Structures
1.
Amino acid sequence: MPHVSRRPGMGSIVHSSGATFRVWAPFASRAAVVGSFNNWSARDQDQLSAEGNGFWSADIADAKADDEYRYEFENGSTFTRIDPYAQAVSSSSGNSIIYDSSAYAWKSKFIPPSANELVIYELHVGTFNAPKTSRKRRRHGTFAEAEAKLDYLVDLGVNAIEVLPIHEFPGDLSWGYNPAHLFAVESAYGGPDAFKSLIDSAHSKGIAVILDVVYNHLGPDDCGVWQFDGWSENGMGGIYFFQDERSETPWTKSGRPDYGRDEVRQYIRDNALMWLKEYRIDGLRFDSVSHIRNIVGANDSPSDDIPEGWSLLKWVVEEANRLHPKKYTIAEDLNGNEIITDPQSANGLGFDTQWDKAFADTVRGALIAIEDESRDVPALQTAIERCFSGNAFARVIYTESHDEADKDGGRVPKDIAPKRAASESACRRAILGAALTLTAPGIPMLLQGQEILERDYFDAGRPIDWSLQEKNAGVLQAFRDLIALRTNAGGATRGLTGQQTSILHLNNDSKVIAYLRSDRGGKNDDVVVAANFKNESYSEYEIDVPASGLWHVRFNSNNKQYAEGFGDSAVKRYKAATRSDGSKSYTIKLELGPYSLVILSQGG
């Protein structure tokens, strides 16, 4: 009978003398490991020894990397389970695979861009670069295929990808928000080394990798920790889950982890830190934080608060910030609650930034409204000026995400013109929305395919139609130009990376809004943005600017190079004039096309 292992760690740990196994199963009366190394029949030397605290462990000399295995338990009957800490599995319902986490040879060293420079591209591995192999377009993509498309993203100019969840999930087609095994990298995508290769390659090209993680629920299908050691109350989930009404979530009847149990808290903490350390992920986006801290995911139901979930989030964020201070913690809470990004010293959760759904809802509403009179420009002002926790970059802003673009929402061009998504009007407004996202304060995020006017709603079985890259080449160029300005690639738009925003002009009748973005202020800094949300051209629309002198047009979306039917303005610069009323303010008279946005700055 093996002795309790003295080696630290959970799951299977490869070493020179075989492998160590450690598992938490407090209600099991016996535990063993069975696998390809013992013909799936536990010998005496494969029995795990009880450590006396609900954990079982042993060193198994015959076990080695790439062997398949399961834990075998007794609790009234004999049954087997996949290792909760397994980083590789044969499938969601198959076997654990011993993975040597030290074997991958990293090539790149990388420090992610600062928050004020980030431009995020939301990417779903299964549909980003998947071939269309049939009329139903059901062939999923892989990490290798996503890696092959990275040069396209370099050319686009984005410097971060946010990868939808790659925890092992049931089947091959999924958004990823139904995790079966938290630590295992999705086998259909290529497994852990293929994921590391994608990250390594992205880093070599200057692209940070942010990963969506799901801790608000587990399962519901093929959930590896469901009634893990055979124990449960009232037929519920067992040791990893709440055993009362707190277990129910919008996605599972009984799937919310028990955030108050030390071993479950450690399980989630270990998972988050694994991605940051071992996989060198540059940031984590925590899915539906609202459903970790509250049963129904709301701000206005304190009786439904989950204090254990709140304290878990604080602990994981604190640990991530302490051990990996240059990496990002991003919350999807969607309640517009500043306490999510307030520092922990001020009783906040301390996330670096959070998704701002109100921005998406407001801007999309202005873009897809049928009548110009329905476009609410004062609401746009609120959306532009919103700031969490005194930090312009404590919010992620977008008009399309995997949620907004699903079959119930859809892509912006399709919502504007369901039967003519590539029409001039849809094209103008899609670029207008992207331009607002890339010039307003916040961390801008684009959804894969947005830059080529992808029309299909987002779904795990609908790959991006890359033929649109050529058909909508002008739109793609507009996105390239906007991203270059947002990241100050040319050195003339530093204000777009700054904390300061002020509204220069707002007229709800003409549907025009103009605002100033600045970092430190001054000639080589200030950026003026003017947006027209009306299907009407203005030849001399007067707005204030903060200084005299020449203001150069850095971008004009009403440009025929972006789409046929757009304008052909010859105006490249404007000279600011002193207002005739004797005030010390300066004005310019802009040429504004219908549904268009102009970006101006001074300097070289």
2.
Amino acid sequence: MKKIKFMDTSFRDGFQSCFGARVKTEDFLPALEAACKAGTRYFEIGGGARFQSLYFYCQEDAFDMMDKCREVAGPDADLQTLSRGANVVGLVSQSRDIIDLHAKMFKKHGVSTIRNFDALNDVRNLAYSGSRIHAAGLKHQVSVTLMSLPPGLDSGYAHSPEFYIDSLKKVLEAEIPFDSVCFKDASGTTTPKIIFDTIKAARKLLPAEVTIHMHTHETAGMGVAAYMAAIEGGADFVDLSMQPVSGGTCSTDIITMWHRLRGTDYQLDVDIDKIIEAESIFKNCMEKYFMPPEACEVSPMIPFSPMPGGALTANTQMMRDNNCLELYPKVIDEMREVVAKGGFGTSVTPVSQFYFQQAFANVTQGKWKKITEGYGKMVLGYFGHTPAEPDAEVVKLASEQLGLEPTREDVHDINDNDPKLGVKAATEKLQAAGLETTDENIFITATCGDKGIDFLKGNKPLGIRYKEEAKPAAPATSKSTEASEPGSYVVTVEGKSFNVHVAPGGATSVAPVAAAPAAAPAASSGGAGFEVKSPMPGKVFKVVVSEGDVLEAGEEVMILEAMKMETSIKTEKAGRVIEVCVNKDQQVASGEVLVIFEEV
């Protein structure tokens, strides 16, 4: 009987898939300790979105979090983090010196293994980062990223077993040092047949001592079937999680997989009674966090528009923040075309976010009217080669709107020549802000940008979504109205509105409803006036203009932030600013007046 080993993804992927990666370290350490006592020795504890999110939302330092995890887990536990190839732990690709610094800093702060992937399966993006991980004395788990699309949208070669094995062969031909191989399906859409064929072929290709890992999510309801196909094909490890961050948009639950393997030729390497106890402790630890209802569900529509579990809830939560959750089904529908015209890059960070951002722009600003920066740079080649050629018309639009020519140049060379990137640029930003230029601060600045500088200067807003306790309804002042989905309601209590979702079994989640946008002030009566309105829902990231400023047509008035992207808002006509109608950090609705001008 073959023992199947597993990595517990609760403390990284689970947090991202349920809570937008926004969880305080002090809250989950007791659960990590309980899992260690249960015998689990292999954990995913950082990287990916669990780096930036700590600085942006949790008021914490990710390096401190890693240190504390190592202290609790002990010296022998295998603590793994997730890296996005040339992007390391951000949405922007980096220069070589920052990629090298990433490996050194994570080694310094207790990490033992880094899973390294590239959403485009461009081996160039794995080669340098992999060599730096190995040189730092870490275990390098090189990855091939998986995804499937339905009939009629199939690209042919891309995302077939042949494509995946060819990607693995390129890794071998490039002589990238690695210790294990992961086949990573973040969207949970790859069919069991493709998984079986791929891993069976990989097992024949790889040396016997190289372990094969399989990663997937239950988002489309196929996680257990996918893992069985991987195990039967020759996989040695699977990624599993504990309740409450298992199933739904997350990885398969440890107990579920243990049960599935009973009576087969395989056995999960676990003491199940101790895991049950650890899960109970973990559920108590997470009790105060708001769990979006979609995190607990599977969607049969995800294979038609692949959205990773780790991105799905993060995006729906951001849509809640921007009071536009009703647009989610339209955005998911739009993703189908966006993926196909984008060249079939795997729907995993950062490409999954590029897809969602472009789909969101298509829904809110008109189909292909606005090419978002990340998506545009991807189709132009600034993140590497896409598995298939992107749509020629989309490439043309991206080139015109972003002012960039298509390229086949290595992204590392592009970034090394960019004066805004690298250790030198980050050091100068720190010095200008009067901050210490430690290696940690340099890396934080390079990967988190201005928000990283804000954190280091002590500006640490809290963005964690805790449960809100609804007050008892007062008959004279309260009312309840049914919302758009079964089991969901908008409850108004003493003038305050709450989204309430009652799940089967009676579990209830409550979150405050975003305030309605204030009415815009009237235009000046002194002359012909015009308004600049928001083309999309979002939050005001920066106000560029002041009353009295005179602008030419095409000049920027402010920057909005939504779906992890910053959108520049410009005036289409020349004029003098007579009223700035919104403030920094204010939520705005699509069509809301931002600035009022008078013509000059």
3.
Amino acid sequence: MRMQKLLRLVLLGLILASGATAQQFDFPEARLGDPATLSKAMQTLAKQVLAVYKDEDREKYLNNLFALQAVAGQYPEAVQSLLALRDFRRSANVSNSAWRDTQYEVYARAKASEAVRKLPFEEAYKQAFREVFGRLDDRSSARAIPMFNVVDESWMNPALQGDLDAQKGKPNITLGDALALVRDYQAVQAYHNSASLNAVLITEDDSRRYKIEKDIQVKTADGATVCALIARPQAAMQPLQSLLLFTIYVDYTDNLNDARLTAANGYAGVVGFTRGKACSPDKAVPYEHDGADASRLIDWITSQPWSDGRVGMYEGSYNGFTQWAAAKYMPKGLKALMTGAPAAPGIDVPMEGNVFWNFVYPWTFYTTDAKTNDDATYGDRNRWKKLDHDWYVSGRAYRDLDKIDGTPNPIFDQWISHPSYDSYWQSMIPYEKEFARVNIPVLETLGYYGGGPGAGLYYFRQHQKYNPSAEHYLLIGPYDHIEAQFGIVGLLGNIGDSLDGLKLDPVALLDLTDLRYQWFDYVFKGAARPELLGDRVNYEVTGANVWKHAPSVAAMAGQSRRFHLSAEQSDQTYRLSEHNDPGGAFVDLKVDLADRSDADRKSPGGGVLDDAVDAWNGIEFVSDPLAHALELSGLFSGRLDFVANKKDFDFEIDLYELTPKGKYIQLAPYWARASYVGDLTHRRLLDPGKHQHLDFQSVRLMSRQLQQGSRIVAVLRVIKELGRQINYGTGKDVSDETIQDSGTPLEIKWYTDSYLDLPIGR
């Protein structure tokens, strides 16, 4: 799963096109035919562009120059351009300059030897690989190898095909499009011609650097078996500290990448697997046994002669959950955690705000169908899209998802039978006072966007609450679920400097994989604490290009600014006002929960930066333009004052900055089941027809410098969509409700006493 998610970063970084796009080159559709015709056309195009291409950005120029030379068949020159690019990055103190583009250097050197020395390509490639890797130290080699063990180029083809499709019907191609096409074509050709040769060469390189053991079986306290993979540096003469990744995801290539990189940084790298996965003969069950099993594996590690008795745990998402699951037991050898965008069962998966997500339904097959990842089932997007659509249109109970799909899903059924944050979920991670026992250094890395922010903040705040002296650092910036774990360096060494349309500030371009070993060197080896960790909360103010530091989440803001949900209307929106309307005014919202005419609706917006927002089944409130720039940093909160005609409903509040140029920038969302607001463990149904209120606080941090002249937008809407449960408001278990329970349309009168308190940065 990690590699699949990283592919999006890879595709974003393959193109480093020049800003100059006005110039045109002859490239008619006829040249898009068979591979041989396309190959000749690409070579001609590359030579034409080479004759005129210039760029003042030295790094961009050399990167594009290499691709042009390679596609033009000028491989010796392409090698020299790559070396010049590496020298430039080194002189400019660009991180990871030693190993980036190594895969293309090896390929270009092999093609040059094939042409100049008349060697068979396979022999030339092996020589080039050994020559290049012979110069790399262990750390650089371990960072480079994942770029080589991508098994084929098929996942890159969509980018190239998109470039080619864009040329259909056109006689010419612009300079910018030509550069994009050349870079994608070069990448596909390099992997197509070399991928099959890499596995043997990687094993050969590993054998001189590491001691690698696979399929090690360790017995748990209750007689089950967990498996482990271990990589240790060959040169180690003394017992080592160990870093453990405990995971349900079994992809041996990816798993070895992790263990190898840890060994390259001077630790014993251990990857442990959920019982029932890898070589374990047991039945795989997500979440339920991982804490005890990881704790047992840590005990086993500390008993080995190569261990010095100290273990740290790392990585994120599910693998971040396993760290907190192990910390619930606090085995003696566990000494530090570094977790990125961690999952918290019952908090953000398979539900958030006690509203269940559909996307977790196929995940159970992905992780439990086989000893390794079931990519084929999980990747069957048509099946899961159809399931969501068929369920939504049918109006059947949420509990019937597996019946509609036609395949039993007992794990998902078990999950939805626990709609509250009850003892089932509490048993999996530390709960309340159990956080007090976690007395080891912790570093959490989070993003403002995507999955994981809510759970990560939950762990941080609970740990601070029950163990105020805990050495727990939070680092958060403009990242999504993947970047929050690994940073902005993609699978092929490319830099992802934007996120869903939002250009990232330069200071936010962090390699969190490098930070991982800086953190553990601080904990275990007496190195200096990473400079960026200036206080307990370390956050990037997007739009301001600055990192700030605070002792707590509350301290991120010096004050709050209140905005009321006004009944004053302008076109299709209402005013977000700093003054309350007099006289008990309200805004009326009606949602027909039985309506399915929106089943195939295309939602507007969705990007972190976009031209529109989705206010379907909701109301958009817009503030006046800001007289001055304004920093929002922290958690927003508020009160919803209303009268509803049903016992319950699910709602969402989405905040945006609307810039003077008409662009919407996501700030933070909050969603919840009304009956669980304020207490995830107990349901308190509403009184239909009664004036009541909900006091809430968001669970996702934000930090952004809003421009002068921007407006603040809040979209308040009822959740009714294909991808989540539908709450019909009867008060029954929502998983049992059907469209027959919809009754009269849901009606909510939002009174103007409702308000949002926005945190103003210090």
4.
Amino acid sequence: MAKQTDSTTKYDENSIQVLKGLEAVRRRPGMYINDTDIKALHHMVTEIVDNSIDEAMAGRCDRIEVVINPDESVTVSDNGVGIPVAMHPTEKVSALQLVMTTLHAGGKFDESAYKVSGGLHGVGAAAVNALSDWMEVTVKRDGYLHRQRYHRGIPEGPVEKVRKLKPGEDTGTTSTFRYDETIFKDGETYRFETLMNHFREIAFVTSSVFIKLRDERPSTPREMSFYFEGGVKSFVRFLNRNRKVLHDPIYVQKEVDRIGVEVAMQYTEGVAISEYAFANTIHTPDGGTHLTGVRTAVTRIINKYARDNNFLKEKDTNFSSDDTREGITVVVSVKHPDPQFESQTKVKLMNAEVSGIVSSVTSEALQAYLEENPREARKIIDRCLTSSRARDAARKARDLVMRKSALESLTLPGKLADCSERDPAKCELYIVEGDSAGGTAKQGRDRHFQAILPLRGKILNTERARLDKILANNEVKALISALGIGIGETLDIANLRYHRIIIMTDADVDGSHIRTLLLTFFFRYMPVLIEAGHLFIAQPPLFAVKEGKQLHYTYTEAQQEVLLKQLAGKKVGIQRYKGLGEMNAQQLWETTMDPGERTLLQVTIEDALLADRTFDMLMGSEVAPRKRFIMTHSSEVRNLDV
């Protein structure tokens, strides 16, 4: 029988659309910058800066400046040779206009102009132009300053000569753009810290280039400059500056088959693994073949050295990759004439040949270091042995903690007040500080879809403990059992029992500490929950102001001051909530648990490097960095929320 079709959805030759120019970018921005959120907004800046970095790698630029202007536009300038402005021989328009308004137009498809570059598809500058309300590019080249302005990707006029260059004036390109508010999500704005950390990374992997970031917005004026000559070796020292290290960084730089490889690594006394990979100076957060090469080399050489020197006996099993990488900080940077990335946003390197080359270079350097430094080598092997034993103990402990199935209630912790709903997408788990607040939350909740897990006191600081000790902690075991996804090698987010996990603690110092301990645990051992958008922080009120029979709630001291000014002259009663237990069940529901009224903060990892350093500083073993942070932010500590 022929398949029937809906007559209202006709599909014929008239259904075929051809999107001209940059219209495709504006229609489907996610294809070019991954999304239209705060991360994509920053990606717009890095696309333009990457073009300047390409000039630096070609030896034609040593200074880059980025300015966030008062009107939220961004200016990126460099002292490179400048984008060509002459008429293109076949397209019959200025080369500048071609680069800025045509997808897949650029000078990086062969090696005639750039031996190595990060801008490979001829898309970046044109995509930024398309997604900007307006953009202006000025080029100092061929003895003149040239300029062209665009509105949503469309030139407002031809490339014009503005003036002659002054004697000794640098050449270069300056691009200023203002993102289109009709495309990007409401309320998003540039974060100085995010850009600052990104440019610091670039300065480390592109040594001897001066990068300045300046914020000229009235509310947050500030400036930061970066210049490093030590390459990724300096980067590793920077990453470990607040950690106890076992040895000096192991470093190698070599070129094989026109592929430049630079690797630095250093073991610390901590348990966190910190790995950062770059391809043509572009951070690849999802790693790729270059990071795989380093991991393979480290595991193979550590095992070889341990066998050759009788640290591992014949009956002993080899160290696993996790054993050899625990506590390591490693940065790998490759320069490839033709890199292949997973997508336009370049989150992962895909070149198959890179893995073997990086592995060979790393193996040679690591083998030589271990043989030449037996004392340091012994420290590394000892920590791998300790890691291996702890991992075996953790495996046994984990088997005792794990539930047999996602929805089986027999192994759920006794303190958990579960909900009746069985669709995880509709379920919420409130992690509550203390039995008193837990009792109030149990009375005030909607039992149909809200579950309550009270925690007694402060959970273990998971930044300083191995997994076997973590799994011996009763509060952590209860949390793992309640979530149902497992931990470590057995973690499977498909078994998650609640799609909203909400941390609800008191608005005091102890509450902040417990919240930070929980965030540390999730960041280190269940980051997939954060990445998938399942973790939230509840916002209980600080004050209740009673005016007659009416009750007002305020959530910050600033809100409280505004409310009291509005109620000036009226008789009011004020209650400050020191803890959740001071509210009755109805008040807790109305202010903090009712989906129609509450405010939740979603926990995100916008910058993994910054988050890693923050948790290491706040919860690590070194006291001095934490003390400096507290003293620096002492006026803000009362309102500090990590």
